Amino acid sequence: MQLKLLFSRWVQVAGLLLIGGAVAWAIKLAVIISTNGEIITTGAAALLMKIGMVLLLVGSTGIGYYLTINRGVLLRVLAIILSPALVFGSFLLFGMLTSPLFKNSSISYAQEEAPIAVAVIVYLAVGFLLYRSGKRRTQFQ
After folding, report:
1. Which has the closest alpha carbon to 30: 48, 42, 16?
2. Domain ranges for the chain
3. How far is it, in rounded angstroms, from Cα 120 to Cα 122?
4. What is d(CA 70, CA 84) in angstroms, rounded to the nearest whole number?
5. Chain segment 20-29, per-residue pLDDT in tens
6. What integer best gives the mean pLDDT of the chain?
7. Neighbours of 81 (CB within 10 A)
8. Distances (CA, A) of 57 to 30, 39, 65, 114, 127
9. Distance between CA 17 and CA 54 in Å, rounded?
10. How far is CA 101 from CA 33, 98, 108, 126, in A?
């Protein structure tokens, strides 16, 4: 019983981790923009990139868990393990979508940071939805 309650709360925790990762990346983008692209791979920007990446990868396990709530244990474990690949795959997709938009941009860092900006928006929304769905599920138990 307690283990099930712990896992039902994991959806909420994972949602908060996704939100935290997206916020870290939003602050990273603010640092890059405020320095006009001078600080991209060092200092605060690098630290926030790493923090955001870890939070997003751990938080993404909540996506796999949530999608397999009423499934078998093997499928659930597989989904939880593979869900970070969803995050990495989405970065590739975001890059393919935003790259043509900023190809001739006068802002030097726009093309490489645009996928991160899209990821911030997407994972803020996904994190919020996971948090809300986990909150609803624990109220009914």
Report:
1. 48
2. 2-139
3. 6
4. 20
5. 999 999 999 9
6. 88
7. 11
8. 22, 24, 13, 19, 12
9. 9
10. 18, 5, 13, 24
CB distance 1 to 141 below 8 Å: no
- According to DSSP, residue 101 is labeled G
- Identify residue 110 by its one-letter amino acid code: A
- For the entire predicted model, the pTM comes to 0.87
Q: What are phi and psi of 110, to 5 degrees?
A: -60, -45
Which of 111, 123, 101 lies closest to 40, judged by CA?
111
* Residue 3 neighbours by CB distance under 10 Å: 7
Tokens of 125: 């929304």
For residue range 76-131, what is the model confidence (pLDDT) as tens digits?
899 999 999 988 899 899 999 998 888 888 888 888 899 999 999 999 999 999 99
